[in-house]
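Bumping my old thread because nobody answered last time. Still need a sequence for this structure:
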């Protein structure tokens, strides 16, 4: 480690010590059925969101926490797995998991690691550097993380606790916690979508953008990419750079979407207070934004367009598909395209029952469709399947009283979007969204212990001063 980075870590410790107010511990361990102290908060996911949430809790003196991630250390999140862009798309000066501590920002780390001149010359952050920064951040703030742990099931336990069954390399363990946060990013509540006309294609002919695709095997092959968002373009570019003979990108719109709504919404009012609006306004804003989809930046398009064997097809939704001896035939209103391999970049749909950890209570998770009926002109069945979350990001019940314990399960993922805006998978919203979640978690923990706090106040008898009263002589006149 460089001396500059060592100095930066010393600055971090000094900064955190200066703002460590109030420092009093306020939680007492709650014993689990196994006779061991239960966790106050279990965070599932140790990517950028999990790190920020854990950091926020520790700053709020909630230290009895644990982060789990099914990936090996360093492979959390998409950055070194299915993210196929060379850089982050967010501007380099967006802050996020640092939670407004200057010495913990990416800029501070980058300058310590590569120098101030490098930062000044930097356009966008390389994704490998972002992954390295996140590992440095979690180590520097001392987050407790266990990798290679996959959440299998959440169930109620005694005394108001939750039981999390977790798979690890040597078997299955049960962890008990007062609250669980699902900081599971892009997936979390559903499946990567394969459009209905493509679902009967052989498994070896189709993949989603989140799959582990062997791009080298596509050298000399014809590739079709379905969708026209940033991830679809990233995968098309990766196939082109791997030597694909042809790459066709199929956009269902008559004209491709080039507006990036996430740039519009990156202001404090929207990010902090969308969730305070009534359902009609929340639905109206998020339907507009999500139906536009996330646009792609110029370098992402140029990365594809520089290849002569790249073709963009607008107004070309796939109406039907079939496997033939000559490849996969994709029939669109603009004609038929034949490919050897198809990659779907069409987003994620909600499928609670398809997630093992949710299966026990999936049927009683309230959705937006359960809680709000928009005007006919604003109807969107897919968005109606998003979970309808409480103001602390907790699940709410479709039928009250059947699974009351799910109010202690909090979702911070892409599926939080309809309730809170771009909160659970975006860097731009982290500095407003994470404090909102942390406040909700600590509020719940405090309210659950309110009788203990009252008893503690009632028994509090620590004097702050000693009052010396002069002794009086018995003969003194009055």
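Sorry it took so long. Here it is:
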């Amino acid at each position: 480690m460089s001396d500059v980075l060592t100095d930066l870590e010393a600055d971090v410790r000094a900064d955190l010590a200066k703002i460590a107010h109030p420092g009093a511990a306020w939680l007492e361990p709650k014993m689990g059925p196994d006779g061991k102290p239960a966790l106050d908060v279990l965070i599932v996911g140790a990517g950028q969101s999990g790190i920020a949430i854990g950091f926020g809790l520790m700053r709020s003196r909630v230290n009895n926490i644990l982060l789990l991630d099914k990936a090996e250390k360093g492979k959390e999140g998409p950055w070194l797995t299915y993210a196929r862009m060379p850089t982050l798309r967010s501007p380099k000066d967006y802050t996020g998991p640092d939670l407004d501590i200057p010495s913990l920002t990416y800029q501070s780390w980058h300058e310590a690691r590569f120098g101030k001149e490098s930062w000044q010359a930097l356009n966008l952050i390389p994704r490998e550097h972002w992954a390295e920064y996140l590992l440095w951040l979690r180590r520097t703030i001392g987050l407790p993380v266990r990798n290679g742990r996959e959440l299998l099931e959440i169930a109620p336990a005694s005394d108001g606790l939750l039981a999390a069954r977790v798979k690890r390399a040597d078997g299955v363990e049960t962890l008990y916690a007062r609250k669980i946060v699902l900081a599971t990013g892009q997936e979390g509540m559903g499946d990567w979508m394969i459009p209905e006309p493509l679902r009967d294609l052989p498994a070896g002919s189709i993949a989603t953008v989140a799959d582990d695709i062997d791009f080298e095997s596509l050298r000399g092959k014809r590739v079709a990419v379905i969708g026209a968002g940033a991830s679809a373009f990233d995968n098309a570019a990766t196939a082109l750079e791997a030597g694909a003979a042809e790459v066709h990108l199929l956009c269902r719109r008559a004209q491709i979407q080039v507006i990036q709504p996430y740039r519009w919404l990156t202001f404090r009012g929207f990010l902090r207070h969308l969730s305070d609006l009534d359902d009609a306004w929340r639905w109206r804003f998020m339907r507009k934004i999500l139906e536009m989809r996330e646009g792609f930046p110029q370098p992402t398009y140029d990365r594809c367009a520089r290849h002569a064997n790249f073709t963009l097809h607008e107004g070309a939704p796939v109406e039907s598909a079939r496997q033939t001896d000559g490849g996969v035939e994709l029939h669109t209103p603009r004609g038929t395209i034949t490919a050897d391999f198809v990659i779907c970049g069409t987003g994620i749909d909600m499928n609670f029952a398809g997630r093992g950890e949710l299966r026990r209570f999936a049927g009683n998770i309230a959705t937006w469709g359960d809680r709000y009926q928009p005007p006919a002109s604003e109807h969107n069945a897919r968005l109606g399947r998003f979970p309808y979350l409480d103001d602390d990001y907790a699940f709410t019940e479709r039928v009250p009283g059947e699974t009351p314990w799910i109010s202690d399960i909090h979702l911070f993922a892409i599926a939080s979007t309809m309730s809170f805006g771009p909160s659970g998978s975006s860097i731009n919203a982290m500095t407003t969204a994470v404090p909102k979640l942390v406040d909700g978690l600590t509020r719940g923990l405090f309210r659950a212990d309110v009788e203990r706090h009252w008893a503690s106040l009632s028994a509090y008898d620590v004097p702050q001063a000693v009052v010396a009263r002069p002794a009086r002589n018995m003969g003194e006149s009055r």
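The mean pLDDT is 94. Let me know if any region looks off to you.
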